[in-house]
C-alpha cells in the first residue's frame, strides 16, 4: 500500500487539470451515500465533528483493470484548532481496490480535501462566473484561502485579489503568500465595501452568522460559499439566497447539510425547487449555468465523496 504525503499530493496536482477531473467524475457518476456526521462533545471549547465520507465507482479505470475503486475519507473538524495554529480540518483518505477491497493508498486527507474543495469551486465558476470576471474577494484566511485564489485564477482572468478576515493579520499573511507568487493581492479592510466591488466572492469560513449580505451584491457577481457544512452554520443571509440563482454540488447534500440552504428554506427565502442545478446536471448539460451577464449566481459547496474519490484516484494513478 502506498503512503502519499501532503507534499506528494501538491507535487502531482494542477488546479485546472483537477477541475476537469472533477467535471468528468460528476458526468460519469459514482455511488456516494450522504456523509455521516458525528458530534464529538468537548468539556471545554467548541465541539468537534467527525465526518465519514465513502464512495465507490469504476470511473477512471487503470488500463486493463475493470475492478474500479472504493474510497473513504475520515475527517475531524475542530474549530478551536485555529487558535493554536493548526488547520481546523484533519483527515486521511483510504483508497481500495473496488473488487477485493485491498488497500491501495493512504493519502494525506487534509491536502486532498483542500485541493478538491478549491477545485470544486473552480468547477462551479467555470459554469457560473462571468467570462470576464477579474476582481476576486476571498472571505476567510484559513488554509483554503490561497488555494481558492489560485483555482479561481486558473479559471477566470483574475487580476485583483482582496482578502478579508476577522483577523487582519491572518489576511495579510495570505496576501503576502499570493503576492510572492506574482498575484495582485491585498487586504480588504471593509467587508461590505469589498463585496460590492467584487466579480467573484469566495467565502470559506466556519461562521454561524451571515457574512455575505444579499443587499450588497451587484448584478453579475458570482458568490462561492464553501464553509457552513452543517445546518447551524451559514455564510450568507436570506436576501442573498433570494436574489441569486442558486446552484449546489449535490441536491441531497445541500438540502440536508448546508446551513445557507437549510436555513433559507426554513425562512421561506428559498425552496428546494428554486435550486437551479447541481454538478451532475451542469456537467451533463441537463441544466444551464449562468444565462446572462447581469445574473447573480450563487454556488453552495458542502463537499461530496465523489470529489475525494476522483482526486484520490488521480493522485494514486500518478504515483503507482
Q: Please, could you describe this protein's structure?
A:
This protein has two domains: 2-112 and 306-319, 2-Layer Sandwich (ornithine cyclodeaminase, domain 1), CATH 3.30.1780.10; 124-304, Rossmann fold, CATH 3.40.50. The longest helix is centred in the middle third of the chain and has 20 residues, at 109-128. α2 (15-28) crosses α3 and α3 runs parallel beside α4. Helices cover 36% and strands 22% of the residues. The radius of gyration is 19 Å and the shape is globular. The model is unreliable at 60-64 (pLDDT under 50). It has helices at 6-12, 15-28, 109-128, 145-155, 168-180, 191-197, 238-243, 251-257, 259-267, 279-283, 305-319, and strands at residues 2-4, 36-40, 48-57, 69-77, 89-97, 103-108, 135-139, 160-164, 185-187, 200-203, 222-225, 245-248, 297-300. The strands form two sheets. The protein has a seven-stranded parallel β-sheet, sandwiched between helices. Strands 1-6-5-4-3-2 form a six-stranded mixed β-sheet. β2 and β3 form a beta hairpin. With 320 residues, it is an alpha/beta fold.
